[in-house]
Amino acid sequence: MKEAVVIKNVTKKYRMYRSKKEQITDLLIPGKAGKNFNAIEDISLTAYQGDVIGFVGINGSGKSTLSNIIGGIVPPTTGEIEKNGEVHVIAINAGLNNELTGIENIEFKGLLMGFSREKIKEVTPEIIKFSELGDFIYQPVKKYSSGMKSKLGFAISVTADPDILVIDEALSVGDQTFTNKSLDKMNEFKEEGKTIFFVSHNLGQVKSFCKKVAWIEGGRLKKFGPTEEVMSEYEDFISHYKSLSKEKQEAFRNELAERRQKSE
Ligand SMILES: Nc1ncnc2c1ncn2[C@@H]1O[C@H](COP(=O)(O)OP(=O)(O)OP(=O)(O)O)[C@@H](O)[C@H]1O
């Protein structure tokens, strides 16, 4: 089987500050203030062509950081990522320019995706139709709700016909009709053998759509394998986590966060 994306020992470090003062101090005297924080830590994972991989994990575990690295939006601090094909990211707001109107964004993103002016003209009506935005397409994107942005972003990206697709919570904000339509489109991509990464808190969608699942916990890859195998364990974990008091949930998250701060 052909490798589509190979992630090798990827870590993303951010500097964390408790105040603006700390941030300025660190800028003037590097290392004097602030802490390193590993948003993701030493993740290795291979996706083969046609793999549909779900990323699950509680808030802040590192799913978006990893998907942004795969999408080329964020560079890793250390480690390597190899991609065999064009990658497109569909996320709430991804790549949309807030100052431009919907229609201008279609043109702008179209050019970024390497489309000719003629091709953009040809696909624009399809995008408008898919996005269901009607006359809102002439409004600046800053006036859109997150659901509307997601619809436009999704409609533009699916036109690109990418080899590798990263879908980050893009289906969580729209209405049910749009979600179903988008799921149909994603299933088409899946049947065509495209490689898909799917970030979602909707475990039902992950279970029905993904062939494999990567469970991220505290920035690390806790488990990666066939959907059924990983999800049965993850669902046990999540129902236990949800049964904890707010304080205990916070203590659990703090414990993970502390480890991510200490690790260099
Ligand atoms: N630009 C940034 N600067 C500093 N810290 C960041 C940055 N981006 C992400 N982080 C931190 O990295 C950690 C992982 O964030 P990430 O958004 O990847 O998690 P997630 O699993 O996608 O969360 P959620 O489910 O809430 O969307 C979080 O603690 C977050 O605060």
UniProtKB/TrEMBL annotation:
PANTHER family given in the database record: TEICHOIC ACIDS EXPORT ATP-BINDING PROTEIN TAGH
Taxonomic lineage: Bacteria, Bacillati, Bacillota, Bacilli, Bacillales
SMART domains: AAA (SM00382)
Domain named ABC transporter: residues: 5-243
An MF annotation (GO) of this entry: ATP binding
Taxonomic source organism: Edaphobacillus lindanitolerans
Lineage top rank: taxon: Bacteria
InterPro entries the record matches: AAA+_ATPase, ABC_transporter-like_ATP-bd, ABC_transporter-like_CS, ABC_transpr_TagH-like, Bact_Polysacc_Export_ATP-bd, P-loop_NTPase
Gene3D superfamilies, alphabetized: P-loop containing nucleotide triphosphate hydrolases
UniProt protein name: Teichoic acid transport system ATP-binding protein
Family per similarity comment: Belongs to the ABC transporter superfamily.
Keywords: ATP-binding, Cell membrane, Membrane, Nucleotide-binding, Translocase, Transport
GO cellular component, one term: membrane
